[in-house]
Amino acid sequence: MQGKGFIKFIAIVLAIVCAYALSFTLVSSSVEKDAKNYAKGNLAKEKAYLDSMGTVKVYPLLGFTYQEVKSKEINLGLDLKGGMNVTMEISLSELVKSLAGNPTDANFNTALQNAQTQLNAGGKDYIKLFVNEFEKLSPNTKLADYFSNQDNATQLKSSASNGEVQSFLEKEATSAIDRSFFILRSRIDGFGVVSPNMQKQEGSNRILIEMPGVQDKDRISKLLQGSAELQFWQVYQVQEVVPLLENINKTLAATLKDTATVANDTTTKAATGGKLAGLEKAGVKDSLAKGGKLAGLGKKDSTAAKAAIAKSNPLFSVLSIPTYTAENGQQQLRPGPIVAWVAQKDTSKVNSYFKLPEVAAAIPSTMKFMWSVKPMEGSKVFELYAIKVTSADGKPDLGGESVSDSRNDFDQKGKPEVTMYMTSEGSAKWKKITAEAASDANNKKAIAIVLDNAVYSAPTVQNEITGGVSSITGNFTQEDTKDLSNILKAGKLPAPARIAGSFVVGPTLGAQAIHDGLISFIIAFIVILIFMALYYHRAGWVANFALLINLFFIMGILVSLGAVLTLPGIAGIVLVIGLSVDANILIFERVREELALGKNTALAIKEGFKHAMPSIIDSNVTLFILGAILYVFGSGPVQGFATTLCIGILSSLFAAVAITRVIFDSLINRKIEVSFDNKLTRNAFKDISFDFVGRRKIYYVISTAIIILGFVFYFKNGGLNLGVDFKGGRTYLVHFDKAVNTEDLKTKLNPVFGNETPEVKTAGEDSQVKITTTFHIEDQNPKTDKVVEDALVKGLATTGIKYEIASSQKVTPIIASDIVNGAFYAVLISCLFMFIYIVVRFKKWQYGLGAVIALFHDVLMVLSFYTILDGVMPFSLEIGQDFIAAILTVMGYTMTETVVVFDRIREKLKESGKEDLHGEERNNLINFALNSTLSRTILTSLTVFFVLLVIFIFGGDSIRGFIFALLIGRIIGTYSSLCISTPIVIDLGSSAEKKK
Description:
Blueprint: H1 4-39, H2 43-52, H3 66-71, E1 75-76, H4 78-81, E2 83-90, H5 92-99, H6 106-120, H7 126-137, H8 144-147, H9 162-191, E3 197-201, E4 206-212, H10 217-225, E5 230-235, H11 238-255, H12 259-262, H13 265-281, E6 288-290, E7 293-295, H14 303-312, E8 319-320, E9 323-325, E10 331-333, E11 338-343, H15 347-355, H16 357-362, E12 367-371, E13 381-388, E14 398-399, E15 403-410, E16 416-422, H17 424-437, E17 447-451, E18 454-457, E19 469-472, H18 478-490, E20 497-505, H19 507-560, E21 564-565, H20 567-596, H21 601-633, H22 637-669, H23 696-716, H24 724-727, E22 729-736, H25 742-752, E23 759-763, E24 765-773, H26 784-797, E25 803-811, H27 813-842, H28 845-869, H29 881-912, H30 919-932, H31 934-954, H32 960-981, H33 983-995
Parallel strand pairs: 1-21
Antiparallel strand pairs: 2-4, 2-20, 3-4, 5-13, 5-14, 5-17, 6-7, 8-11, 9-10, 11-13, 12-13, 15-16, 16-19, 17-18, 20-25, 22-24, 22-25, 23-24
Helix pairs in contact: 1-2, 1-19, 2-13, 6-7, 9-18, 13-14, 19-20, 19-22, 19-31, 20-21, 20-22, 20-31, 21-22, 21-27, 21-29, 23-28, 25-26, 27-28, 27-29, 28-29, 28-32, 28-33, 29-30, 29-32, 31-32
């Protein structure tokens, strides 16, 4: 075998990379185990321990801190960890209305409403829809009459055409979405979510947010839906605030006499070693004010000394005054608006100190403290600012409404800067406050730019600014100026962000999902290992070794890419392992054929790999195409499934083909006997000659009968059982302490939901139900979610049974229509790609069309079985996003099976020296291809079926419906590839011949 050394090199490099990626999970788990042992069940102590370890180097060799290690560990999805997934929708209708100055014109507002209605029905591009509607209603009116106002004068002329106005609105809409994304990201970071995942949904006005571990829905709802408030404040200089901080420190020392409150073991460690480490890493010299004097606190101080300092200087034990070393070697206050540095874990303690009545009384009414929006670079240290309140009503010197525009730009020296434009009214106020800040040439003051009560920047004013145009410079990167520009524009126009969809998973359900997923994974893996070892003897053990390597590679690559591991993702991994066996089975069956011809083992292996490769490549490419389509059109769990599927396919190809070949060659070279069967399996599937083609019309009748029966049940049941993500609404999964009657529960919930009857179904067990309602789903008021959940709680309370809401999901009609459209396009595009690939590879349109007809046949068959069995099975057979993933995977099965048969037909045609056969010769050829690949078809189908059966039994309720679709699909896919897709080529070919 050529390239053996290169394959070994790639395998070693890949193994090192995967081991490195997975090592972070092992290290973080070790630290967290220590935290649990230390806390002994006390969650507060456990959290304090982990906080104190944030900047401590815990990776033995590479010196990574716990914070860095945690960010690189396996990223678990919400269904495994619990948390909240939210789809935010930016209201472009309100943005457009605001840009036009909130006109009262009836046609203008009707155009806005019509555009929103079309968008809700599945339309795309709100701005284009609005412009089209306006031109229909007011054909003789120019849009520039509304939008070329004083605030937009620099960007839009009064003579602008409707097309130019549309371009302007599209640019503003994109900018609003970008600003919203930045603001939402800042709010989530401030909330303290670990590893939040945010992404803009390209081509729409929506932002997807995943927040692991978050359970406080009301707080998150307020956090995300609150309007951004941009403010400009004058600030105190550090030298003006230090005396007050010293006074607060003395007040606290006198007030807090309980040593346990001020300095417990964990707090002391965190306040000293942890904080100093963070400050040193940021490149900042740390000094603590002790008793009114500046003094450094070294790491060598004893714990008792640190505790004593914390007791006598409670504020300065967690807060550091910014200083620098002067030329005379003395510590001096660092000039500027930053009055203190505080480690992130201590910010809440400082806040609590400031709120104490004794301390609050000492802080003048003209001062209030605010934190920087994010920690200093490379640390967990926040900056504290003292805001100067100059008005009697406590309002800022200037609000966000005064900013007309802002741009990230470059100065004359090519350095990044921000240019800010004020409105005419804002210009006058800006001139006044900048004049005050720059009045003392020896002590120029700063002005803080504040958004949502967090300081984003506090530039020092160099001179009075007239004309309303300001440039903000500093040690900025391009990313910094872009962010600052977004902040300044955030307060310009109202573009409210509303929760259009949400999915909440409780921690209990997440823990159960992990348990069920792991159990199903382990059992399925063992089933495959036993089967391969029993059926293929020693060659089976080689395949098993390759499977273990493949699993290691898949997990390592997933972690390296930062992919989120979900429960469908685990199902995808198990499935990929089952499918990767297919490559080995293809190879081993071809090797057995060569051995049956009397060839020696070495030559049989060589020929087996050679003949199997075309089928392996074709089948894996078709699956990869489907995985890519799933990833593009899916979201959340569907994308998780697609990610593992695509990565697994690539990894499986390398492990099952390249690595197994290297192992076989090594065994042959060492004169070790390699067997591919045993006494029981040696003659399996030999001398089979089944007439698939001759019986094809019987199969057509069977399929037609099942599909017609499916249509009958479709009308009998009143349509398909669509899930909430396809029809819109809210779904709650509720665990009760004992079994409940769904009809009784439905009756109790009816009055609290405004006499709108909810859908109540058992979900797995009699004590677990899924409640779906469209109550208030059209209402966009931010408080509606709470209203609906309060109504649910009120209704559940009437049962008198203890319960827990394990998960909840909300999908608005507009999101539902997008999901339906995405599913429709995913199926159509999959069929198109399959057709093109087959035609290109096999140069016969009959093959391509036969494969596509089989794909539609499979989709209709699975839908028919779902419709027929709905209400019969003891679990939900809803049709949602995961069902579409199952349908596309079923299509992949069929294509894999079909392509293998097509490859065998092509191989035989090549041997005969003909491009095609006709009549009985073609019938015999197709029957031969189907029978000669039957062993591989049956073995692969059984392997995957057993894997799916294990997941179905042990994988948990949350994916049972999904796996059921795959189980049915596995059977239908095998039946379709043998009895429909290939035999139909006969009829298509006959039709073409008759036309000729």
